[in-house]
Amino acid sequence: MVRLVVYGAFGWCMEILWTASYALVTGVRGDLGGDSGQLKLSREQRLRLLGHTYVWMFPLYGAGGLLFEPIHEAIRGWPWLGRGALWMVLIFVVEYVAGAALCRLTGRCPWDYSYSRYHLHGLIRFDYMPVWFLFGLVLERFHDAVAAM
């Protein structure tokens, strides 16, 4: 249970940092529940570094962290390129399945990537491939730190 909470909190923090950084760099943010896609931000709004997440994400990040622990142990000896590629695919799978399940459960997915030209059903963005590749490798280090607690 402690690990689920640690992974959930880590995921929430990373998502808040990601959404704030994304808004700062791109000048847009998701509409957070509206149907207008992305909102353009003024310079002052960008500098506020307003990040966000959803309550639904806490159990998703927590369970995902627990799910990925045995996979990390199994692939620990792989070259980093293979591990990063596998993490990228697995994160896409989890993101897609969780998004589809949340759509069925609540009528809407908390994230909507349909504004992107590289999306699949609005649930994943293929231009995030490098992000998920690197994030998977970061998760390995985080898993090692959590396991050492």
Low-pLDDT segments: none
Total of domains: 1
Q: How helix-rich are the residues, as a percent range? A: 55-70%
End-to-end span in angstroms?
Answer: 13 Å
- Give a quick account of the main beta sheet: strands, pairing sense, barrel closure: 2 strands, antiparallel
Give the strand content.
Answer: 5-15%
Mean pLDDT: 91
- Give the neighbour order of strands across the main sheet: 1-2
Rg, alpha carbons: 16 Å
Number of helices: 5
Can you walk through the features of this model?
With 149 residues, the chain is mainly alpha-helical. It has one domain. It contains five helices and four strands. The protein has helices at 2-26, 43-47, 57-75, 80-106, 129-147; strands at 28-30, 38-40, 119-120, 124-125. A two-stranded antiparallel sheet has the order 1-2. Strands 3-4 form a two-stranded antiparallel ribbon. Strand 3 and strand 4 form a beta hairpin. Helix 1 packs across helix 3 (57-75) and helix 4 crosses helix 5. The radius of gyration is 16 Å and the shape is globular. The protein starts with a helix and ends with a helix.
In terms of topology, how is this protein built?
Blueprint: H1 2-26, E1 28-30, E2 38-40, H2 43-47, H3 57-75, H4 80-106, E3 119-120, E4 124-125, H5 129-147
Antiparallel strand pairs: 1-2, 3-4
Question: What attributes does this structure have?
Answer:
single chain, 149 residues, mainly alpha, two-stranded antiparallel sheet, 5 helices, 4 strands, 7% strand, globular, transmembrane helix
